[in-house]
């Protein structure tokens, strides 16, 4: 039962009718292609609308969650109570000399592409990461020896007091899959990246190389949330999983990828419960065999 439906019309007054959806299934908004309905899904178009939504949610004691591209989130089958604020419509990207200013909902692949078009190097590592700027900054996303902390200059955020503020690179406290965004409950609005001038041919060559490596080694043909587990200190999650004999193991249509053991994939008709059961099986088996705890990189939200 949707206990928050009565807030539909006040929210429509804040962001417009077209940006409010009731009982929207999250399987349509996550890369895993699973997940039950959220009570209210909002897609704001301005920074002020984000501020007003969060202020309203806090005043009315409505739980809320900010979502980017949904590429690092697993929504349970019972869905999410309250509000999800999806920032996909805030996706502008600007170039100012060697800097890129990108809104929170801009896709990493688009930012990487625009950098390449303008002969700016340093963002190639992100060309194949399926997330958005906000999510990538929150998690300090990285791949192939590159990560957000290497190129970020500053971020414009909404803080827990409902005020806009600019955070320097140091104030963002970026670490492995951790940041001040998580620690202090900030909402990323936009980010400024400081890149270097490079040779366009070499930049495109690097992107092509990384694209080919991903296609060869990652199960891109199936829905997933990328690497399911964080890298444990001193180990590689995929190797631990493979050495535990779990490659190809499945629960329903959820499977430990035969191509890359670090990925759990949806073979077609998996539900969130299948994926969560498989995650727990992997964690339990690796713990028993190697006495190493695997923690999920993917964020699990909602209720059964």
UniProtKB/TrEMBL annotation:
InterPro entries: FAD-bd_PCMH, FAD-bd_PCMH-like_sf, FAD-bd_PCMH_sub1, FAD-bd_PCMH_sub2, MurB, MurB_C, MurB_C_sf, Oxid_FAD_bind_N. Its cofactor is FAD. It is found in: Cytoplasm. Keywords: Cell cycle, Cell division, Cell shape, Cell wall biogenesis/degradation, Cytoplasm, FAD, Flavoprotein, NADP, Oxidoreductase, Peptidoglycan synthesis. Its EC number is 1.3.1.98. Pfam families: FAD_binding_4, MurB_C. The keyword Flavoprotein applies. Residues 33-198 form the FAD-binding PCMH-type domain. Gene3D superfamilies: 3.30.465.10, UDP-N-acetylenolpyruvoylglucosamine reductase, C-terminal domain, Uridine Diphospho-n-acetylenolpyruvylglucosamine Reductase, domain 2. Its main location: cytoplasm. It catalyses: UDP-N-acetyl-alpha-D-muramate + NADP(+) = UDP-N-acetyl-3-O-(1-carboxyvinyl)-alpha-D-glucosamine + NADPH + H(+). The active site is at 177, 227 (proton donor), 297. Pathway: Cell wall biogenesis; peptidoglycan biosynthesis. HAMAP family: MurB. Belongs to the MurB family. Cell wall formation. This is UDP-N-acetylenolpyruvoylglucosamine reductase. The lineage of its organism: Bacteria, Bacillati, Bacillota, Clostridia, Eubacteriales.
């Amino acid at each position: 039962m949707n206990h928050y439906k009565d807030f539909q019309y006040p929210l429509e007054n804040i962001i417009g009718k077209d940006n409010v959806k009731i009982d929207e299934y999250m399987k349509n908004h996550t890369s895993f292609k699973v997940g039950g309905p959220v009570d209210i899904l909002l897609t704001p178009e301005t920074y002020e609308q984000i501020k007003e939504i969060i202020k309203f949610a806090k005043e009315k004691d409505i739980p809320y969650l900010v979502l980017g591209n949904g590429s690092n989130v697993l929504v349970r089958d019972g869905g999410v109570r309250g509000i999800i604020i999806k920032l996909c419509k805030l996706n502008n990207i600007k170039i100012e000399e060697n800097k890129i200013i990108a809104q929170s909902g801009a896709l990493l692949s688009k930012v990487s592409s625009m950098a390449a078009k303008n002969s700016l190097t340093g963002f190639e590592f992100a060309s194949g990461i399926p997330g958005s700027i906000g999510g990538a900054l929150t998690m300090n996303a990285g791949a192939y020896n590159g990560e957000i902390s290497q190129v970020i200059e500053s971020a414009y955020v909404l803080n827990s007091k409902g005020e806009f503020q600019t955070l320097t690179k140091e104030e963002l406290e970026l670490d492995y899959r951790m940041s001040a965004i998580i620690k202090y409950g900030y909402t990323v609005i936009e980010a400024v990246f400081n890149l270097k001038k490079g040779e366009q041919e070499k930049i495109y060559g690097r992107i092509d190389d990384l694209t080919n490596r991903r296609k060869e080694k990652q199960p891109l043909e199936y829905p997933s949330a990328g690497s399911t587990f964080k890298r444990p200190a001193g180990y590689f999650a995929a190797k631990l999983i493979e050495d535990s004999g779990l490659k190809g193991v499945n629960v329903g249509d959820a499977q430990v990828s035969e191509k890359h053991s670090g990925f759990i994939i949806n073979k077609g008709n998996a539900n969130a419960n299948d994926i969560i059961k498989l995650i727990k099986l992997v964690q339990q088996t690796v713990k028993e065999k190697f006495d190493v705890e695997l923690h999920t990189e993917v964020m699990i939200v909602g209720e059964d």
